[in-house]
Design a protein that fits this description.
- The chain is an all-alpha fold and 206 residues long.
- The protein has helices spanning 2-17, 29-39, 45-57, 62-105, 109-137, 141-153, 159-179.
- α1 packs across α4.
- It is globular, with a radius of gyration of 20 Å.
- The termini are far apart.
- 22% of the residues are buried.
Length: 206
């Protein structure tokens, strides 16, 4: 009975998130963190960051990939299916309905104005999501350097190449630190009174 309860909670959680995440998977980050981390306590913020990194590394929509990975972490294969259905069904029906109505509404100035405002709001949501992810991802000078180099590089190279290069850079960085005897922490430690402080975990801040 408990297993079915978790499956329903996974389905319902992503069913609620999906209809309001205009702008794709990255717009889901604040809502997923609020529901999965803060409200349910299923995962940590660091886990959500890892999920989104993995979701971008495999083919498919980021939103569906993320929901599937989170569902699998919490409820196994059945959890993955429940989360995937939860995030997919609302979007499917909304797109179906909007597709039928678009022919009649496409020239309406109020509808056009609404979509312009939605696009601007999406930018704000994605920037907020990027800041939230950065707080868990940029943990030392090495990761900060990767971000500084990676942002302009994305204007010239394919995102997949950027992900692969980033992964290789991380492996090389850790190998160098291990060679020189630096301590490598796997998780960021929380300090009292400074919940969001970025701390070192890959050595002494090289």
């Amino acid at each position: 009975m408990k297993g079915w309860k978790i499956l329903f909670q996974l389905f319902w959680t992503f069913f609620k998130i999906s209809p309001v995440t205009f702008g794709g998977g990255f717009a889901m980050v604040p809502l997923i963190e609020k529901e999965v981390v803060e409200k349910r306590g299923w995962l940590k913020s660091e886990d959500i960051t890892d999920v989104f990194a993995l979701s971008q590394s495999v083919p498919g929509a980021v939103a569906i990939n993320s929901a599937t990975f989170i569902g699998q972490r919490i409820g196994g294969v059945r959890g993955a299916i429940a989360a995937m259905l939860g995030v997919s069904l609302p979007t499917f029906f909304i797109v179906l309905i909007l597709g039928m109505l678009y022919f009649f509404l496409q020239d309406n100035p109020k509808v056009e104005a609404a979509f312009i405002s939605i696009r601007v709001t999406i930018v704000a949501i994605i920037v907020y999501a990027a800041i939230k992810i950065a707080k868990n991802s940029i943990v030392d000078k090495s990761t900060f350097g990767i971000m500084v180099i990676g942002i302009p590089a994305l204007f010239f190279i394919h995102p997949i190449i950027a992900i692969v290069v980033g992964a290789l850079t991380g492996v090389i960085t850790v190998s160098i630190k291990m060679k020189f005897g630096y301590k490598i922490e796997r998780e960021r430690k929380a300090e009292k009174g400074d919940k969001d402080k970025l701390e070192y975990f890959m050595g002494a801040g090289i």
